[in-house]
Write a structure and sequence with these properties.
The protein is of the alpha+beta class. The protein is built from 16 helices and 18 strands. It has a 5-stranded mixed beta sheet with strand order 1-8-7-3-5, with no helix packed on it. Strands 9-16-15-11-13 form a 5-stranded mixed beta sheet, with no helix packed on it. Strand 15 and strand 16 form a beta hairpin. It is elongated.
């Protein structure tokens, strides 16, 4: 508490002003005895290392994507640190910080002041309030002074005001020259520290084992929840700590959030490359994780499984799981970069001309270590799980009949969300516009969800096959070029389930027992394509069997109480006894009176055709036949024929032959 009060007093300008490092006199040379041995640890006389020059561009790309929802390119709001942090009184970085923390920053300058000195002091108070706000929430910014966040002119003005009047003009000019020379490095380190600590506190620290277990695509047990603070709960919490995953418990090198990132990456890289869930290769550094191209591809494939299908960006992943040379390793890195571009999860370029930040490409993956590796892995953690389908929408349809379903989206944010919608999978699924007409698949549809409102997207299924087919609807949130968190992508799976059929041709005919007769059945298929269809299946059933009329009972006679007799056909007895061969074939022919004249059917461009079927029944009754035609490229349809078979004609004579041999008569 004392340290915090001291920090608040220093930020608010109260108390004694600290002397700057450059105002201190030069230190006297150390005696020879002190130079003999330097203890292990931090050497105060050694200059502290400067931040990596490649770190600031990645921070700009990360904030443009996640906090500023910006379109990559010259119009990106954050292109350089600290140059873009000065414009409009620090509007861009402050908007990014507000988006990440979800709160309005206190003390933010609301109006422009014409007086230069007064403006410098107002900006100084703004950055004091900013640092105090961030430090109170856990940001490690004790080394950052509020004047270090000012632009060059205001920085020199405030430093001159803090240092007081110089005794001579030469000392004043030397001070200004020193401050002017060191401002670029000081401001770069200060703004980079502020932005990195903001990401650490408001993004990285939210990664916990419980949040990891709740992610889509992760099949691990959730850690037990804490109960009331009593003796029993304390004992249970101690036992729960022993049962917690040690890989996500933090260490003396990594925080809990960084351990969760490594665990998440290792889990999905193993799952995407074919290893059992949670039993793949374990990565303990971010440099090793992104240096393995197969691991990066596996992580993407585990969350977006459709990319591994034929024609996808990761279709050749299985053939390159164990690269043998540098060319194959480079091919894996290119595949991973292409997959991220296809998912619109790549960190694109920012700026233009000489100051342009190039997009993060395949050649950069092996060099992502340290803070850059944490940032990129955090980016993947926040984007890739969105491509696991939220749910699968089932279409319980009828073959040949259209079925439409609508996906409703709700927007709880205070600004509109614009989605680019992409429909993939079987072409049986068709997107409909607001007028109910099919959309062109080649053109991405746009759905606008109003602030605090709803939006919908209609999908129609016209099943061409009875076998299940699948599809996928992906909603890509477009950058709105306004400060705020980018809306996540949404993915819904589509699955057809044909439960019945709609006949494309129907005929009702009459026939006589033992007399073959051929009929023409007109067909109008739903496919306006010319092709040849093969008979896939033919099913017959007797829907009404013939029963001879019983003689009428005498009126007034006694009621007979005879027991009912169960009669069984001889053919049924043979089948029940398990006899095979000609007997079963003969019984099957007796039960199937329909026979197609040809095994193929030629359909015209208009979708019309005629199907010839022969009816030869051996028993009177009403029979129903369903003939299923299939063309693997065009589709499938069903034709129904109902035949009413009457009694055979009376014959005046009946001829039969009887042959007798040594063993007796034979039929």
């Amino acid at each position: 508490e004392a340290a915090r009060a001291k920090k608040r007093a220093s930020l608010s300008g109260k108390g004694k002003k600290p002397k700057s490092l450059e105002d201190k006199p030069a230190a006297a040379p150390a005696p020879a005895a002190a130079k003999q041995k330097i203890p292990d640890g931090v050497d105060a006389r050694k200059e502290r290392p400067l931040p990596n020059d490649e770190l600031a561009p990645l921070v700009c790309q990360w904030l443009n994507y996640h906090a500023l929802s910006a379109t990559p390119g010259p119009k990106a709001p954050l292109k350089a640190i600290p140059e873009d942090c000065y414009e409009n009184n620090g509007k861009v970085p402050l908007d990014a910080i507000e988006a990440l923390c979800g709160k309005k920053l206190p003390g933010r300058l609301q109006r422009t002041i014409s007086n230069d000195r007064e403006l410098a002091n107002q900006l100084l108070e703004q950055y004091k309030a900013l640092l105090l706000f961030l430090i109170e929430r856990g940001c490690l910014l004790n080394q950052v002074r509020p004047e270090q966040l000012l632009e060059r002119h205001h920085y020199i003005l405030i430093r001159d005001q803090q240092a007081g009047a110089a005794p001579t003009r030469s000392i004043k000019e030397a001070r200004h020259a020193y401050w002017d020379e060191t401002h670029a490095t000081v401001a770069h380190e200060a703004w980079l520290s502020v932005l990195l600590q903001t990401i650490r506190v408001f993004a990285l620290q939210r990664l916990t084992p419980k949040a990891f277990a709740s992610l889509p695509g992760v099949l691990v047990a959730k850690p037990p929840e804490r109960k009331d603070d009593d003796d029993a709960s304390r004992k249970s919490s101690r036992s729960n700590k022993s049962q917690a995953d040690p890989e996500m418990g933090g260490s003396n090198v990594y925080s809990v959030g960084e351990c969760v990132l490594l665990k998440w990456f290792s889990y999905h890289s193993g799952n995407g490359t074919g290893a059992p869930a949670g039993l793949g290769k374990r990565y303990n550094t971010f440099g090793k994780a992104f240096g393995d191209g197969a691991a990066v591809c596996g992580c993407v494939a585990s969350n977006a499984a459709h990319l591994v299908e034929s024609g996808g960006a990761l279709a050749n992943l299985k053939t390159l799981l164990e690269p043998q040379n540098d060319d194959e390793k480079g091919e894996l890195q290119k595949m991973a970069a292409e997959a991220l571009v296809k998912l619109r999860c790549d960190l694109g370029e920012a700026g233009a001309d000489e100051d342009m930040i190039e997009a993060l490409g395949a050649e950069d993956f092996p060099h992502l270590d340290g803070a850059r590796g944490v940032l990129f892995c955090l980016h993947l953690y926040l984007t890739l799980p969105n491509f696991v389908p939220k749910t699968t929408i089932e279409f319980n349809a009828t073959l040949g009949a259209a079925l439409c379903k609508t996906i409703e989206l709700k927007n709880a944010a205070a600004r509109d969300i614009v989605y680019d919608v992409q429909l993939d999978g079987s072409r049986d699924f068709v997107a409909l516009d607001t007028r109910g007409k099919p959309r062109d698949r080649a053109k991405a549809a746009t759905v606008v969800v109003d602030a605090k409102g709803k939006g919908d997207y209609a999908v129609e299924l016209l099943p061409r096959f009875s076998a299940p087919v699948g599809g996928r609807v992906t909603f890509f949130a477009k950058p709105c070029d306004r400060p705020g968190l980018r809306a996540p992508a949404l993915v819904f799976g589509l699955q057809s389930r044909v439960e019945s059929h709609k006949a494309c041709g129907f005929a009702r005919v009459e026939a006589t027992c033992y007399e073959p007769k051929t009929f023409d059945v007109p067909i109008a298929t739903p496919f306006k394509e010319q092709g040849v269809f093969a008979v896939k299946a033919l099913t017959c059933e007797c829907i009404e069997a013939y029963r001879p009329a019983r003689p009428a009972a005498k009126k007034g006679g006694p009621v007979s109480k005879k027991k009912k007799r169960v009669t069984v056909d001889a053919a049924d007895l043979w089948l029940q006894e398990g006899r095979s061969g000609p007997v079963q074939q003969a019984a099957k022919l007796l039960q199937e009176p329909f026979h197609p004249v040809s095994k193929q059917l030629r359909v015209s461009k208009e979708g019309d055709a005629e199907f010839k079927v022969e009816v030869l029944a051996c028993s009177p009754g009403v029979y129903k036949c369903e003939v299923r035609f299939l063309n693997e490229d065009i589709g499938e349809f069903v034709v129904e024929v109902v035949a009413k078979v009457g009694l055979p004609k009376k014959a005046e004579s009946f001829k039969f032959a009887l042959e007798a041999g040594a063993a007796g008569p034979a039929h």
